[in-house]
Automatic annotation (TrEMBL):
<keyword id="KW-0479">Metal-binding</keyword>
<comment type="similarity">
    <text>Belongs to the PTPS family. QueD subfamily.</text>
</comment>
<dbReference type="InterPro" id="IPR007115">
    <property type="entry name" value="6-PTP_synth/QueD"/>
</dbReference>
<keyword id="KW-0862">Zinc</keyword>
<comment type="pathway">
    <text>Purine metabolism; 7-cyano-7-deazaguanine biosynthesis.</text>
</comment>
<comment type="function">
    <text>Catalyzes the conversion of 7,8-dihydroneopterin triphosphate (H2NTP) to 6-carboxy-5,6,7,8-tetrahydropterin (CPH4) and acetaldehyde.</text>
</comment>
<keyword id="KW-0671">Queuosine biosynthesis</keyword>
<keyword id="KW-0456">Lyase</keyword>
<dbReference type="Pfam" id="PF01242">
    <property type="entry name" value="PTPS"/>
</dbReference>
<dbReference type="InterPro" id="IPR038418">
    <property type="entry name" value="6-PTP_synth/QueD_sf"/>
</dbReference>
<protein>
    <recommendedName>
        <fullName>6-carboxy-5,6,7,8-tetrahydropterin synthase</fullName>
        <ecNumber>4.-.-.-</ecNumber>
    </recommendedName>
</protein>
């Protein structure tokens, strides 16, 4: 069976720190990153009226709304991001998007400028 996957990306900039790191660790100090988040929705069937899995514009709005909640803020202040790793960011975005997007199959959060990325497969 063929499976379609559609993906939309959004970007945000945010500060964070890892309070559990030892004194002197650069991760313990407040610092910032530019992030990219990608949300992937999969389906074996297409909406017959449109010929698509789902409207990428609607996925864009949902993803941007979630990313804007974090943009230019302190990640540690958000519930679930007290330890603000890429891994926890994936879970945070999945928790927000999954209710509205039951076909959500993957969340990728990356820091493109330093070539780091985490993928959560749902
Ligand atoms: N598995 C994970 N490991 C690390 C995460 C993470 O989210 N998941 N996060 C960090 C810190 O955010 C750290 O700031 C990342 O920076 P780093 O990889 O060290 O890259 P930098 O460019 O900021 O520093 P350089 O010294 O220039 O490499 C750490 N680990
Ligand atoms: Zn960092």
């Amino acid at each position: 069976m063929s499976v379609f996957e559609i993906t939309k990306a959004a970007t945000f900039d945010a500060a964070h720190h890892f309070p559990s790191e030892p004194e002197g660790s650069p991760y313990r100090r407040i610092h910032g990153h530019s992030f990219q988040v990608e949300a992937t929705v999969r389906s074996e069937v297409l909406d017959a009226a449109h010929g698509w899995v789902a409207d990428l514009g609607a996925l864009d709005r949902a993803l941007k709304a979630a990313a804007e909640a974090l943009d230019h803020g302190m990640l540690n202040e958000h519930a679930g991001l007290e330890l603000p790793s890429l891994e926890h960011l994936c879970l945070w975005f999945a928790d927000r998007l999954k209710p509205e997007w039951p076909g959500l199959s993957r969340i990728t959060v990356s820091r493109p400028t330093i070539h780091e990325r985490c993928v959560l497969t749902l």
